[in-house]
Automatic annotation (TrEMBL):
Protein name per UniProt: Glutamine synthetase
Gene3D superfamilies on file: Glutamine synthetase, N-terminal domain, Glutamine synthetase/guanido kinase, catalytic domain
SUPFAM superfamilies according to UniProt: Glutamine synthetase, N-terminal domain (SSF54368), Glutamine synthetase/guanido kinase (SSF55931)
UniProt GO MF annotations: glutamine synthetase activity
Similarity remark: Belongs to the glutamine synthetase family.
UniProt xrefs under InterPro entries: Gln_synt_N (IPR008147), Gln_synt_N_sf (IPR036651), Gln_synth/guanido_kin_cat_dom (IPR014746), Gln_synth_cat_dom (IPR008146)
Cofactor: Mg(2+)
Purpose of the protein: Catalyzes the ATP-dependent biosynthesis of glutamine from glutamate and ammonia.
Amino acid sequence: MKQESLVFLCTSDIAGKVRGKAFPESDFEKRLKRGIGWTPTNVQITCFDAIADSPYGALGDLVMIPDPDTMVVADYMDERPPERFVLGDIHETTGEAWECCTRSILKGALERLERVAGVTLVSAFEHEFHFKGGNCPLGSAYSASGFRAERDFAEALTAVMRTAHLGPDTIMKEYGVDQYEVTMKPAAGIAGADHAVILRELVRITAGRVGREASFTPLRSPAGVGNGVHIHMSMRHADGTPATYDPDGPHGLSKVAGQFVAGVLAYLDRIVAVTAPSVISYTRLTPHRWSAAFNNLGYRDREASVRICPVSGMSDIATAEQFNFEFRAGDAAASPYLALAAIVHAGTQGIEEGLTPPAATEEDLSLLSMEELNKRGFIRLPQSLEEALERFSGDETVTGWFPGRFAEVYAKHKKGEIDFLKGRKEDDVCAAYEEVY
Ligand code: GLU
Ligand code: MG
């Protein structure tokens, strides 16, 4: 069969979907300037392919321009040709960033952090997913046999991650049925989120190569184990030295990192609509699922929204270099760009307001009364997407972090998603999300 290689130029949009258009690879240089045409109302296509209420209607034209630094050639060195894709930014035809370009929104947030605090954010996204109709026998959680069941996948993924300049770190059989987890090395600035977008695609492509289908849905069934996206973060000064650790700071956090974490926790109930944006995300974000149900800081505690991660004195890497904290109230229904943008804005707000991080919790907060929680400054996170959206849309500080009409468009998009699912039982809702993510 005669074939010509194409490059798929794409964005990770409000639905957390990777959408775009392909063009002949031979046009790559030209496309770097000319981009491809894009339609504003595409941003209102929900994960279920329904079009939510759009302020743009049938009007307008945009241009998606590739960023050559994000070019991926997924070459498995087998009989099939490699798959090529590249991430892009969406611009107005006049050149400025479009108000709903998720990647540009994250760049804006990262620039704000640099301007306010003089630090660069470094991030590493940790992904959980499962194989549909998987392969793992009962009793395989964290096990060698569970790993072995998908070793072909795991080794092909590792190789292709390296080709795509993502740093392979660990891969394991997670606790849930047919659930796996992949971690990767951190990357600075926009690259951290680019790598998350790329990783999800590489997992899907690689799964297809070995005859599997992966799903990143936040929750496979109401009583099941969630697929979380945990975002590890640290900071660096302009000269590249680590800025997150202070042995005398609270739980080892430097002043700037402590204020950032405090901001994330203070604004968490108003940004969770962006970091955990599906209807079923709110079943995952309940106590005793090792996810996050309160706006608490945890020291090595896996049931905290932000967890200070362990460092090891035995490592060859200095403590200040290892030190990082992890955001756990996120999932893969969110575009990595938007999730990280919301976190970075909340953190930077915390720096501007000079907030102090709360003491880390070491107990089961679900056992405390509402009164006790309030007294100690804890908030139970919103328990539905509707409630989360109300808190997001109702806070002018939060909506003001985003450009132009973005916040309004976002809320309308999510309303369209909620409406699509109206009247369905939770099992069906889970099944629908499993199909689309
Ligand atoms: N599956 C859990 C989640 O939904 C996380 C388990 C873990 O700590 O890795 O976030
Ligand atoms: Mg995990």
